[in-house]
Structure formats: C-alpha cells, structure tokens
Amino acid sequence: MTRLDVIGFGALNVDKLFKVNHIAHAEQESFIQSSRVTCGGSAANTIVGLARLGCKVGFIGKTALDREGELLLEDFLTEGVDTLGVVRVKDGESGSVMGFVDQKGQRALYINSGVNDTITLQEIREEYVSQAKFLHLTSFVGEQSFQTQKKLLEKLEKCIKISFDPGALYAQRGYKQLAPLIEKVYVILPNIHELEQITEQKDPEKGAALLQSKGVEVVAVKLGDKGCYVTNGDEHHYIEAVKVPVVDTTGAGDAFNAGFLYGLLHKKSLLECGKLGNFVASCCIKKMGARAGLPYKRELELL
Ligand SMILES: Nc1ncnc2c1ncn2[C@@H]1O[C@H](COP(=O)(O)OP(=O)(O)OP(=O)(O)O)[C@@H](O)[C@H]1O
Ligand SMILES: [Mg+2]
Prior knowledge:
The chain is α/β, with parallel strands linked by helices. The radius of gyration is 19 Å and the shape is globular. α1 (42-52) packs across α9 (252-265), α7 crosses α8 (204-213) and α9 packs antiparallel against α10. The chain has one domain (6-12, 41-90, 116-301): Ribokinase (UDP-N-acetylmuramoyl-L-alanine:D-glutamate ligase). A hairpin with a 5-residue loop joins β7 and β8. The longest helix has 16 residues, at 270-285. The two termini are 33 Å apart. The protein is 36% helix and 23% strand. The protein binds adenosine-5'-triphosphate and magnesium ion (MG). Adenosine-5'-triphosphate binds at residues 191, 222-225, 227-228, 241-242, 244, 246, 249, 251-254, 256, 278, 281-282, 285.
C-alpha cells in the first residue's frame, strides 16, 4: 500500500446554494434566481486543496446510498482523493447544507448533518489511518462522531501527526471538552476567535503558548485579512495576507490549512509554511465558493 500524506476526517456535505430575491421569513414567499450544487465540508475542502498540490490524500467519512453520497464520492475521485475510508450506509441521508443568499450577500443556512453524525470507531479501519503521515481533523455537529475522533486518537500510534482545525463548532466546546484531542495534536489551525474561545486569551501569542504548554508543537492562527500568526515554540512570525480582490471568503480557512500542511509535508520552514497558507487562501478568495480557486501545483511553482 502506498503511504498517504494526509487523511482527512470530518463532515462530508453537499452544499446547495440558492440566490434569492430576499430571504423569506415565516409565512412569506420568496423566489430562487439561480442555484448551484457543490461538494463541501471543511476537512474535505482542505484534502481537495492538498490533492491539487500533488499530495497523496484520503478521507474518513460517511455517506448514505443517495444521490448526494454519489456526488461526494465522484467529486473525490475526480480530484484524486482516495475514498477507501469513506463508509457508505443504506439507512439515512448524506450530509447537506441548503444556503439562501440575498442580493446583499447575506446568508441563511440550513444544515442536515445526516449520517455524518453517526460514525463509530468500528467503521474506521486502523490500518487505513496508520499508513498516513498526517490525520487532519475538523468538527462534526453531533456527539457520536466527536467521541469517535477522541477514541481514534487514543488508539493511534505516535508516528502519525495529528492536525486539527476546531472551527466554530468545536471551539465553542471550550478547552475542557477538547483537551483529549488537543493533547494529542501536532499542529492546530484555529482562527483568532476560535483560539480565544478555547484558551480564553485575546492575544494570539498567549493563546498559542497555552496550547503549546499542553503539548501542541505548531500553532497557526488565522487572522482574516491580516494574514496569520505562526509559532513552533522556537520561532514565531506574524505574516501579512496576500493582497487580492476579495470575491468570496468561504473556505479561506480550509485553503489556508492546505497550504500550511503542504509546507509541513515538504519540510519547509515555519515562515514558508505560513506564507504557503496565506497564498493558497488568497487563491481561494479570488473565486466564488470554497474550492473553485484552490491552486494546482504548477501555480505554486510560479511563486
Ligand atoms: N481579505 C483577505 N485578503 C487576503 N487574504 C485573506 C483575506 N481574508 C482571509 N484571508 C486569508 O485567509 C486565511 C483564513 O481566513 P480566516 O482568518 O477568515 O479563517 P477562517 O475564519 O477559519 O475561515 P473559514 O470561514 O473559511 O473557516 C487568512 O489567514 C488569510 O491568509
Ligand atoms: Mg475556519
């Protein structure tokens, strides 16, 4: 079996985005002007970003035997993502998100997490996971899949590095609940709000130091249009964002993760990793949606 560079473990969703004249309130009607269906999920976006950069990647997740499940798998195969770790079940629905966007760009989102929330440890093959250099974790809505992530980390050998983007959903659980994950993590990639929720520190340097005192080696804090703050304990850098026309920041954080992990995999310096994160994120925000702008390896070579 060829060794995979990174395996993602997070929710798989089909995003159905509708442009509407206005977002309807209860008892109101509104009109759909256009619609678009894309594949999403935070870890899945990062994994697709890594695949485009030429990394060998796979995924652990769950779908049902419905049209959405087929779309998610087809999309992974098109992008060159290994799907052996994706469980498909007869009962239930695949994850989906319905989004309604009005003329001003305001959104209303309805999430159906479906079978994403019912992943058990028995459904994950340990040999599949342990062949990877990195396991990249992102959040689930439901409790069961969160517990499975914790149990999986308890079982895993030390040779796999864990990378973790808590997202808003896990950050709001606070440090106590996340400790079993955080204490096994090699690199954590929160945004500044998430770091503050987890560590109760407003200052990224203090927040990062606290996580490092719990065993995390590398902390990359995403600072929106200000770029990022990265540290490995020995070095730390604030790195300015790449200036680009902003079209849509959806998925910028996931794209950052792809660039940063690409850097770690290729043994780049901490500063280079941060710059790669900012660069891949800047490519993402130049296009609509979380994946359209994700760059290919040849675009990195032009840097
Ligand atoms: N306006 C911008 N101009 C240039 N780069 C940006 C801009 N906004 C965000 N970025 C880049 O995207 C990265 C991630 O953005 P952000 O800090 O918003 O993460 P996030 O909140 O986790 O995003 P997401 O909502 O996708 O999870 C930043 O570290 C930066 O590199
Ligand atoms: Mg994020």
